[in-house]
């Protein structure tokens, strides 16, 4: 059975009063993948959807939850997928796309039928999904790491040496508002998105993977002068409000996928926070 959950937006004043359990309930998505089903979480921050499809020994389809009040899931939405598991086949209105590990697929608004399957049940695909409202149709397109816009940032000295792969962004392909990419931390580096920033024009979601067994990532959120943290494990996602910083530090290096939506497609639209000003 597929799972769909809807979560209300929270203001900074509400988050100030939350204990650990409340923070995790409102922002952490613990179970992104479950065998042979699609799990989806709708955030009322920009009506962004975060989820995962994990076909094992059968083909599974993108559902159309009643809460969307749509004829089909992508009637008024666009969809981004990044494969973080075994080889996958995604079929969009009859067109088949093979996705290897860390390859991405953009599916445009108006696509009526989307299905997922694994090439090998012994190595099941894990298809991480983000979706945002869309105002027009853009072509469905596969994007591999060789197609990505790649940026190298940070240094070993500050433990944030990382490679940013901009996969589903407007410098690579047209989208309405959805943007997704993947940041890989080098060995010995643990900090992502540091110095931290906010952008009141967009919300964001982070998905952490390639976290070694027995290790964890501490995700930092909240207003720059009123930060909070959530401890996260491998294959988990977290919702980041537009008023919140979004940064993490792991007990080992790891990889994470960032996805965002909002008023613009300007990747550099950031209100930076000096490290020494964070509280």
Automatic annotation (TrEMBL):
CDD domains: cupin_KduI_C, cupin_KduI_N. Keywords: Isomerase, Metal-binding, Zinc. Zn(2+) binds at residues 197, 199, 204, 246. Its cofactor is Zn(2+). GO terms for molecular function: 4-deoxy-L-threo-5-hexosulose-uronate ketol-isomerase activity; zinc ion binding. It is an enzyme of class 5 (isomerase). The keyword Metal-binding applies. GO terms for biological process: D-galacturonate catabolic process; D-glucuronate catabolic process; pectin catabolic process. Pathway: Glycan metabolism; pectin degradation; 2-dehydro-3-deoxy-D-gluconate from pectin: step 4/5. Catalyzes the isomerization of 5-dehydro-4-deoxy-D-glucuronate to 3-deoxy-D-glycero-2,5-hexodiulosonate. HAMAP family: KduI. This is 4-deoxy-L-threo-5-hexosulose-uronate ketol-isomerase. It comes from Pedobacter rhizosphaerae.
